[in-house]
Amino acid sequence: MNTGIPIQYFLILATIMFFTGVYGFLTRRNLITILMSVELILNSVNINFLAFNRYLYPNKLEGMFFSLFVIAVAAAEAAVAIAIIINIYRRFTTINVEDVNEMKF
Fold first, then answer.
1. How would you label 10-27 residue by residue, b for 16+ Cβ within 10 Å and e otherwise?
2. What are the structural domain ranges in the chain?
3. Cα–Cα distance between 39 and 18 in angstroms, integer?
């Protein structure tokens, strides 16, 4: 099925997003930027799910359901991560990863 945009464009976009997210996750020190990098990685996976679903099985919705599942997991992960970041900020008054070296109750 020809949709006008080749699948290679979606794969290139997803690859760029994925490796930008991995780079941000590995190099940043701020917990918020690390969380944003993880979200970027998850969104690149969603693009792959949707692109392959559209080009391989255009009449089925498996890729859509997987993407919805990933979005739901990402929302829960973001809520828990932000709660943890708020608690870390209250305890240490910083959200830099290198400054937080102990996790106490």
1. beeebeebbeebeebbee
2. 7-99
3. 10
Under 8 Å between Cβ of 68 and 54 = no
Three-state SS at 96: strand
> Using one digit for the tens of pLDDT, what is the confidence trace for 60-82?
888 889 999 999 999 999 999 99
Fold of 7-99: Helix Hairpins (1.10.287)
Rounded CA-CA distance 17/30 in Å is 19
Please report the sign of the dihedral spanned by the C-alpha atoms of residue 88, residue 94, residue 100, residue 102: negative
Distance from C-alpha of 14 to C-alpha of 51, rounded to nearest angstrom: 10
Q: Which two tokens stand for residue 63?
A: 């890729």
Q: What does residue 36 show for φ and ψ, rounded to 5 degrees?
A: -65, -35
If you compute the radius of gyration of the chain from its CA atoms, what whole number of angstroms results?
A: 17
- pTM score, whole prediction: 0.83
